Amino acid sequence: MPRILITGCSSGFGQAIAAQFLDQGWEVIATMRNPSAEGLPQSDRLQVLPLDVTDPESIAAAIAAAGQIDALVNNAGVGMLNVLEGADIGRARELFETNVLGAMAMARAVMPDMRARRSGVIVNVSSSVTLRPLPALSIYSASKAALNAFTESFALEAAEFGVRARLVLPGSAPSTSFGRNAVARMGMDVPEAYGAFVQAYFQSHMSATEKTQASDVAQVVWRAVTDETAPMKLPAGADAETWFREAGFATA
Ligand SMILES: NC(=O)c1ccc[n+]([C@@H]2O[C@H](COP(=O)([O-])OP(=O)(O)OC[C@H]3O[C@@H](n4cnc5c(N)ncnc54)[C@H](OP(=O)(O)O)[C@@H]3O)[C@@H](O)[C@H]2O)c1
């Protein structure tokens, strides 16, 4: 039975991805900083492990406990909603530690075994903000653009050993805790001069009719893992698909 390790399974996309793979008969190692099976389907093919992607010891312990991993999904991520002038640069470093260096560290951790077996797939959950720039997201967007560049270069090295690396670009999914978590963890102290601009922008953004559901992301991650012909970048969600086409990519 194939085995997948997913990061950031305490909520949102991570839970939906775990449910998708359990549903398809895979063994799922659902990892999160504070382990709990809440929100995940009950299954004897589900293993819940602690994992903080910014902590090398935590990564080593999770990889040792997980056993063979056929697919890794780097889903853990944090957001930051603020204009640059309102953003805390220390927190921006923390965000890059999770969104970029965390994914790199995880790929490094699974690679020796995948390389030896000449088999495996690593899917990095990026964002459609790398397709269409949006205000008040410059630091977050920079982290996901870095994740894209990392994945596209790393994929060339990994392919040499039969290991695939792919990117999934979800659109905006207000149904997850992402926005709330971003504000709770990273603050949102918008400078007064930008207040009206930021408010008007978020109002127009939230009223957009096309949105992404967690199930869209789970299905696209499924494709990225199981379809060897899947392209490097896969949009997930109706809004992401529109932006993907507008950015000049053909959806396939
Ligand atoms: N929602 C959107 O609109 C959207 C759009 C495009 C892309 N994305 C991306 O999709 C991914 C999942 O987002 P989501 O919407 O499902 O948000 P979410 O509900 O906030 O989930 C984020 C997950 O990442 C985990 N996480 C944060 N820091 C971590 C760390 N250091 N180590 C391990 N896990 C960590 C969180 O765990 P804790 O509970 O421990 O904090 C949580 O499980 C992220 O990479 C995000 O950037 C989201």
Automatic annotation (TrEMBL):
Which InterPro entries does UniProt cross-reference here? NAD(P)-bd_dom_sf (IPR036291), Sc_DH/Rdtase_CS (IPR020904), SDR_fam (IPR002347), SDR_oxidoreductase (IPR051911)
Does the keyword Oxidoreductase feature in the UniProt annotation?
A: yes
Going by the UniProt record, its keywords in alphabetical order are: Oxidoreductase
Which superkingdom does the taxonomy of this entry point to?
A: Bacteria
Which Gene Ontology MF annotations are present? Answer: oxidoreductase activity
The family database entries (Pfam families) matched by this protein are listed as: adh_short (PF00106)
The transmembrane residues are: none
State the family it belongs to.
Belongs to the short-chain dehydrogenases/reductases (SDR) family.
User: Can you say what this protein is called?
Assistant: SDR family NAD(P)-dependent oxidoreductase
User: Can you name the source organism?
Assistant: Pseudooceanicola spongiae
